[in-house]
Design brief:
With 295 residues, the protein is mainly β. It has 2 helices and 16 strands. The strands form 4 sheets. It has a 5-stranded antiparallel sheet with strand order 8-9-16-11-14, with no helix packed on it. Strands 4-3-6-7 form a 4-stranded antiparallel sheet, with no helix packed on it. The chain is rod-shaped, with a radius of gyration of 41 Å. The termini are far apart. The N terminus is likely disordered.
Amino acid sequence: MIHNLKYKKHISTSVLMVSVFVMSIFWSSCEFELPDADSIPDATPPSAAFGETVGDDYLIYNFANFSVSATDYMWNFGDGTTSTDLDPTHVYAEAATDEDGTPYTVTLTASDKLGVTSSVSKEIMVLKPEIPEAMQLVILNPSFDEPGDDGKYLLPWVPESSIGKTPQSSSSSSFVGGKAGKFPNAGTDPRIGYQKDIAVTKNTDYTITYWYSIETGDPSSLIVAILGGNISDASEVAAATIKKFEGTTQVGKTPFEQVDLTFNTGDNGIISIHISNTGPKTAYVEEFSAVVTPK
């Protein structure tokens, strides 16, 4: 009887060992891959979606990722470059050749940790915006020889009293005949020519051309300054100056010397022209004209 019990105990132990061995083989032959903590169950696969906006520069695009149930993203911007950012900003090297050019195809592929993917594509037409044609800059009474309502030849070059003393007009010195603006001995009370409210296009290059002469003798000069906006007092000239030229060539009443003054209007929708002189010798100026400077 005791012998049988020992035999049964031996059989039970053997069976148990065999069972453990078989189970270990079974588990080792099966591969289980537990999903990562951030993965999305198969019941909610990813869905890719995005939007885009143009940046301050037409070549810069900002992409907003609207995908759902996804953890990883691959962007293809259609120009050979990619990104794995969530909301990337991309700078294109060049625009389409013209309005009928081939657009860039942007593709977003969204995926989850189970390897399920979703893709969406859009065509992006990168075009350089049209620049509106700049308005022409108009200077009134450019030669100081058009009589105004007051019968004189200086309007609209007459400044407010807080800016300076009224210039003169002269018929004895002129580049094209007629009259010229005359700026005698500057002294302590110089003459000022000032024309305001000249409409311009913002952020545009213009070139103002004029002609001047200075009588010979003691050093003297004629200064033409382009001001951003208008001024109401002489103390504001320096701060408002965009560009200026000080002519110092002294050859007498004639011949006149040409000056081309190129400037950018910046954020100014109007400009003004300020004319002054230094020294004891009389200076003359006339024949103002202006053009939009080609790029």
